[in-house]
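ugh finaly. both done.
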Amino acid sequence: MHRLVCLVLCLVPCVGLWATDSTLTLQTKTLEPLPDAVANNAVTAVTVDQTEYLVSFAGIGRGLKYSDAHARTFVFSAATETWKEHANVPGDAGRLATTAAAIGELAYAFGGYTVAEDGSEVSTPWVHSFDPKTGRFEELSPMPVPVDDAVSFTYENRFIYLISGWHDLGNVNLVQRYDTVSDTWTQATPIPGVSLFGHAGGIVDNNIIYCDGVAVLPYADKPRSFAASNECWLGIINDKDSRRIDWRPVEKHPGLPRYRMAAAGIHAMDAVLFIGGSENPYNFDGMGYDGEPSEPARHGLLFNLKTLTWKLVRQESASTMDHRGLVRFQDGWVTIGGMLSKQTVSDTVTHYFLHQ
């Protein structure tokens, strides 16, 4: 992420590498590239009047400096197969680690953090809805606790959950639930595991799964450091009271923990798909907290919600990292921008298809 502290190895012992499952592969094709390269951007998809739109909010440009953080909005229309730039996300500031989700015919952008020239960072409380057809933003009720680098899930075509994330000086264990009908916030059951930023996950029906990210590791005799976490948690949303979530630990995925993967639920398979990310957590410029350049991790991961087991999915296309979401689009899933090998910010839009 962006916190100037050293990184240590896994918070808990890491699981060894395993072989890919030859029966599962990720095939890809590319869509029209973005108008400009961007990483760390919040992404989602919305359908309006039977037209699908991809939306990218904010992020960082090719220079990977604090001044390259921006609030640009890009929208792709499936009808025209072209991208269009709309007005900036309101707030008059470039931002990183914004979180996005979609309900009905609107996209929603939550928070993010700003970086000043002196390196100081502020988690922003801003929440806006966005109509991809008109390009219009509307300011909504701010987050009770501003967070960035959170994971979002939608439920019952009404609620958006923000899971954990960073608030100004540290991670929080909060699960903040936003009601798109009443424009109000409620605190849901907090996560029982370590508080995180840069984690990833997906939802199928009322089952949430999230994994990995980075936790703060305290010491009695020296300053805190960051630790990559390989914890994975299943959350079951109560069907009578959606504030209540039954959190349960599940098996850790094979290999090292990853940072800023793209992930989404796959309803047809009752599973959650994870793509990309890096095994070496990093600052916003792609350099690891350990001082080494971070590189994207190979192959995808699939968690089966019925059997609670993992498969490593073969991926032949170039690996990417620095994602803020995996977007359901047409008959597959999409990553929008991100970072390639050697800290190269990308304008590539990749459409993934999972084959057995």
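ok and the 2nd:
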Amino acid sequence: MSVDAPPDREAAGSRTTSPGPRQRRSLAERFAPYGYISPFFLLFGAFGLFPLAFTLWLSFFEFRLGGGDPQFLGLENYVWLFGSDAFYNALLNTLTIGLLSTVPQLCIALALAHQLNYSMRLRNFFRVSMIIPYATSLVAATLVFGSIFSNSAGGLANVLIGLVGLDPVSWTNGKWTAQFAIAVIVTWHWAGYNALIYLAGMQSIPQDLYEAAAIDGASRWHQFLHVTLPGLRPTILFTIVVSTIGATQLFTEPFLFGNGAGGGALGQYQVIAMYMYEVAFTFGRLGRASAIAMVLLVLVIALVLLNTGLARLKMRDRPIRTTPSGGAR
């Protein structure tokens, strides 16, 4: 006895499979998503990749500001740069000013965010006030701080240190005094901005972790060490990277602090960005300035990788240990 095939199978076998909706999509529909994101890549290529590639190309040529055809020099610009005492002076000043400003800036920001994370009167007012230094014009703020750290005895900084019996300080003429004053400007400008970033990261940490730590007898300080800091690890790494990049690109603060004096009479606070500006627009050597720019790029990448690696080693999770009486230690 023969068994007939089901009608639906016979019909399925007798007709050809029609293309589905995905197969009927036109070529324009397939490439439409790439068209939506293309403006970003076009702008990035025009204002990001092309200037970078052109600067790299120009660093191998002798090209003067004001005319003339570029002349290929090979690595001579880099040989000149690494043999220049002014470059090493600017490099050292950049590192010291960056260290004097970045470390206190992030520590102050972390302390402010930790305090604002708890309930307190006028908390919203203080949160808003944290962004005021960042919103203030950096040029105006630097000029104000320049008058505060004036070399005269009537400057506010000298008046304050005179109250404790110290002699007036010539802030712009000394190396460490000038760098300290510039670091104060940078810290004042960016501490509140980083505090708000830390505050946002603290508010994303689950409250259950703090409650469990409090039940185990952990004090507020131990909660900060063992709950807040591990929870802020990605945020702290982000601020370290951004602050490191900003420290290597300092220009406005040291330039205006000495009223455009080129980093002081002895270059005591001349940073790499100022040195690059001087080589390009004072001496008109665009090829050498391009070599400085490429070395600065390598320096930024190296410092970011170094700081990120050190931060990862220092910020490992440490479990809360409790004593037999329930107190955390």
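summary for the 2nd one i guess: The first strand starts at residue 61 and ends at 62.
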